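Tokens as discussed.
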């Protein structure tokens, strides 16, 4: 095509090229597939042929992955997909223009790398980068959206980073247990055994970022506390990084109680998915209520993820999208209305 261009990219560090190109050049093949370009590899040079916009995207992606490798950070299929996603989002998300200017210039923005004991974590979408920056700049941040968008995982990563660098004295992680009413009495075991299954995702995130013995030691010392929402009542949480997960299952009263626990030197992140509310029929979600009530309040920000921001697995994005489409087309009355009983003939 006449509007196609050729761009030659040079990479000096030959030792990094096998990881940059991927096994059997699969990273380059992925770029060809996703961005509709042709890529030729010649030694330490890459020649990209295609539409000017897509060629520039390939350059941004390869530069970002090369920068990761130079910092001894891994580059796998997830990182490749994340870099592609961010390069594409850079042209499509006006609400993150400031972040995207940095993304286009050099991916990843080094300020956006969250450093924990076990790994370095960087955003995998433009909105994730905005989310991380918002947590740095605001005392209270809401992260709202479907499963797989990294809301809780990134919040826990920021909390671990803040604790290990001395930014806060402790981490407090909470979520509603079972339901908004916290009815745990029917479960076997003591209170810890009752609530542990509902807090397991938070434990998993912690163990992914810190050695298990360090997590347990800090929990014994009170530097990491994981507790159901009901345990927050009456407390003032100072010099802490506080996270409330599954916040869609709080009532308005519970949400107000939790938000007013915020003390001096603390940061708070509230995450949830308003499409998965488990409250009884007629009970308004505290998350929805808080988002509406606190809109525009200084020091508070809300980041709203969509199915386009799902980064957990390619199939998860398709699953979320399929459910959303089905929900739009579903006739709720027809599906959920109880069948009428016929009166017996006399």
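Sequence:
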């Amino acid at each position: 095509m006449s509007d196609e261009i050729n761009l030659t990219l040079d990479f000096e560090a030959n030792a990094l090229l096998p990881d940059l190109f991927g096994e059997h050049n699969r990273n380059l093949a992925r770029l060809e597939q996703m961005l509709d370009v042709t890529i030729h590899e010649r030694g330490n040079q890459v020649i990209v042929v295609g539409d000017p916009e897509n060629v520039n995207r390939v350059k941004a992606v390869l530069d970002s992955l090369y920068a990761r490798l130079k910092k001894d950070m891994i580059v796998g299929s997830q990182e490749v997909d994340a870099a592609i996603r961010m390069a594409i989002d850079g042209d499509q998300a006006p609400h993150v223009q400031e972040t995207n200017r940095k993304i286009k210039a050099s991916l990843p923005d080094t300020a956006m790398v969250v450093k924990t004991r076990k790994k370095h974590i960087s955003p995998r979408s433009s909105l994730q980068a905005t989310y991380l920056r918002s947590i740095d700049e605001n005392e209270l941040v809401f992260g709202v959206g479907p499963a797989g968008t990294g809301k809780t995982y990134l919040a826990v990563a920021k909390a671990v980073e803040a604790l290990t660098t001395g930014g806060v004295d402790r981490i407090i992680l909470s979520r509603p247990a079972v339901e908004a009413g916290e009815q745990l009495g029917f479960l076997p075991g003591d209170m810890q055994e009752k609530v542990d299954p509902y807090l397991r995702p938070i434990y998993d995130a912690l163990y992914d970022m810190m050695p298990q013995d360090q997590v347990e030691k800090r929990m014994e010392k009170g530097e990491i506390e994981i507790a159901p929402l009901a345990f927050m009542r009456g407390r003032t949480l100072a010099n802490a990084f506080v996270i409330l997960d599954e916040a869609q299952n709080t009532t308005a009263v519970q949400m107000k109680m939790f938000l007013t626990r915020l003390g001096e030197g603390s940061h708070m992140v509230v995450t949830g998915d308003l499409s998965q509310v488990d409250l009884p029929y007629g009970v308004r979600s505290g998350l929805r209520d808080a988002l509406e009530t606190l809109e525009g309040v200084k020091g508070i920000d809300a980041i709203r993820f969509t199915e386009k921001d799902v980064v957990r697995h390619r199939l998860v994005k398709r699953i979320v999208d399929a459910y959303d489409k089905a929900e739009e087309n579903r006739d709720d009355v027809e599906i959920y209305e109880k069948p009428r009983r016929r009166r017996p003939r006399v």
